Amino acid sequence: MAIIDLFDAHAPLVVEPLELPLFVEKKLKVLIVRADLVHPLISGNKWFKLKYNLLAACKQNVSRVISFGGPYSNHIHALAWSAQQLGIDSVGVIRGEEVSNPMLADAQKWGMQLHFVDRANYRERHDPIWQAQLKQDVGSGVIIPEGGSNALAVRGVAELMRGILAQLPDLDYLLCACGTGGTLAGLISAAPESVKLEGFPVLKGAGFLQDDVLKLLKVAGVDAHCPWSLDLDAHYGGYGKIRKDHKEHWLAMEEQFQILFDPVYTSKLLRRFLEKVEQGMYPAGATVALLHSGGVQGRRSIV
Ligand SMILES: Cc1ncc(COP(=O)(O)O)c(C=O)c1O
User: Fold this and answer.
1) How far apart are CA 55 and CA 49, in angstroms?
2) Is pTM beyond 0.85 here?
3) Which of 45, 70, 109, 272 is 20 to 30 A from 76 via CA?
């Protein structure tokens, strides 16, 4: 398949109202941006983050892409499928000891070579010397960073922001879950000063993302025009930790809104947002949109 067929256009971006008596009480207009629906296999933010990465790989006739993720990574899942569609070999460097699960089985089925590295080694993944050794082990190729987050991802996610603004010109707040901060950086890069962007890291102690987002904006050559902030209370125990209370909340919200959320990112974004609404953190009359960044395949890790 040519890149143009895969990334030329996505399904129309759906923006839906989210309705709860709480929102009426607080006089808020709340919407959800269903980026999870833009593509069945390159879901949510992945479509936008991978678009220009894979376009560049195709233009340069790259034969192999190498990237990184945990054993349930939505990024690895989307990359394995799209690389196969484009006839590019792919390698997934997976954090932790060798395991098997439905996500990794999909990736292998789509031809991805899996390379497990222990956590200590995984921490070296940004080091050029470590990367050179990695290429000796798995074969040469272009490295796409964890989560796909680089300048090319920022450029792709900026298109998502423009799509959101086209439908919500009076938007006051846009909220997204954060892992590496690439999605937030892309949204910031195209947001006008009238929109406040809030990132909700799902890692504990993720204050470092403040710098990471600024670095991403810098490498992408763009400035922030909008106010933006991080809310560091959305981790509910830490990355990938799904405590009993969170599982109950997440599944109850799926039932309430009749929308599937993933356990690691969007369910925590929604939970923290609801807490902030209860606490009166958004002014009456505000229009608030939450980004559903996809990753619903990750539900298979829990349910
Ligand atoms: C479903 C989902 N939402 C949000 C994120 C966070 O995106 P980012 O790493 O760009 O901050 C991820 C991670 O890649 C994800 O899989």
Assistant:
1) 11
2) yes
3) 272
